[in-house]
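Q: Start with the shorter request: fold the first protein.
A: Done. Sequence, then structure:
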Amino acid sequence: MMVSNMTDENAQTEAAPMSGANLAMRIGIATVGAVFFSGALAGLSGALSQEEQIKPVGYVIIAVFAALTLGSLWFAWVSGRRYYRENGPFTPRGRRATISAGIACVIGMAVGAAMSISSDTPSQSFDLMDGPLPAGIAAGLIAVIVLVLAPITWFWHRNIDEHEEQSYRTGALVALYFYSAAAPIWWLGERGGFLPAADGMALYFATMGVWSVVWFRQRYL
């Protein structure tokens, strides 16, 4: 009888459907990977195009980053399909929110690729934060953020459920507290001479990181 109970418990454990937390982690990892690898692919392609003759190793590197980009997208797709299969279809609101988030990820990949290709220093393929950009490209990317990403974010927010919204708000509040402390501390440290020059984008990404961690904890843990 004990063996039978243990077998039943093991079967139930193995048959447990994928959790929302697991799916969120998988999609997050896949998105970051796809954005990074696609940006690197675009930057390396632009750098190699400046050479008179591309060496075979150049094609190998391009193929590797292309495979990694496609692999990240495939991982996200497989994870979503598994979650759908094990947990049933999304609600209409959940489906709309998921689609809008997916579109935002694709746009993020396109923006990263555009920044890599258009950089004035194509040989520095991974230097996306500090390298100069042509004015037209910079203006175009700003327009994408204002005219495309902002409406998509609003549409996503309109279609999330109450628990998601509360997690979102809590993460935003904690992130605001973090920024309210980190920005003046870094500014004062710079003026005191014991910290490097304040970096706005570093603060931005750190704040977004805090927001994401708190959101994930409130949403899934």
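Q: Next, the second protein, separately.
A: Sequence, then structure:
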Amino acid sequence: MEYKHFSHHHNLNLYQVHQGQTFHCSGCETSCTSDSIYACWQCNFFLHDHCGNANRFIKHPSHPSHPLILLPSPTYCSGTFLCNACGAAGKSFSYCCATCEVDLHLHCAFLPPKVNHKSHPHELRLVHTIPEKEAFCDHDCKVCNNVLQSKQWGYCCVKCDDFHVHTFCATNEVKPGLYLDDDDDAGLDSGPVEATQLGLFQSGCEDQLEVQLSEEAVVELFKIQLQMQMAEQLAEILASPNHSSPA
């Protein structure tokens, strides 16, 4: 079965990964070792099933002011972005708000809202913002013992004030996928929800809200396209043999 994805110029084929095979996902930059993937064998371009089916725009609880647009590559001249969730750099798919310069890795945008971890007896909840009283305080991650910066997202225990964990440490045993921000349990044994449920990041939204979000997304996408055009033009100018640096 062929599938056309906006990020790639060739059609992709659905392929079942066999035991022992490993592919590199061009969307989230992690390994594909199981389940189905979308593949372009000609270009060695591969996508997890959930990366290939991620929505073009979402309304994310961490940034309710504007929709986040799914981009196949960063719009910045550096060719990379810094994820507002985990603080790590990325050079492939991202959810972006051009107005506010918010960028999220694909997998960070769909982190499960709640997890259980073997290092702690209580449920851990995803926190996008640090409480005001702790806004300037870094914490040590209780899993890896490295610093968890206050500006990064983390998983915290609501019962234990001092238990904070990096997002990647808390979810290292969680099956990758697209998770909803709802009230259902999302422990280590939870699988990803269906991509068709993720239009507005929350289920049960009204049609009117979907239309409104679509209009906002079009405006946001136009801004991003302008940024990409400007970045391409700047790159051409800098690469021109007639360009000389100011003295």
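Q: Describe the second briefly.
A: Residues 182-212 have pLDDT under 50 and may be disordered. The two ends are 57 Å apart (CA to CA).
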